[in-house]
Amino acid sequence: MAGVTERTLFDVPVGGQAVIAAAMVDAKLDRRLRELGLRGGAAVTVLQKTAGGGRVVKVRDTHYALDAYALKHILVDSEEQDR
User: Any idea where the Ferrous iron transporter FeoA-like domain is (predicted)?
Assistant: First the structure.
């Protein structure tokens, strides 16, 4: 697909939903994200912004606060998922 730019979880607006494509982080953080359910194919909803550029996200029925670094390194599908 020519002209398609990579979108990260940081780019998803509050109230928006997306599907995680991949996490471009070191192995330790990748493992922790997967343990929390933040892995490829997982549907995520951005609930609110936090101080320092972070976000509170919802995966299934659980809420997590992620910092801006993690958000900017989690790639999401370019199309928002309707739920």
Answer: 7-78
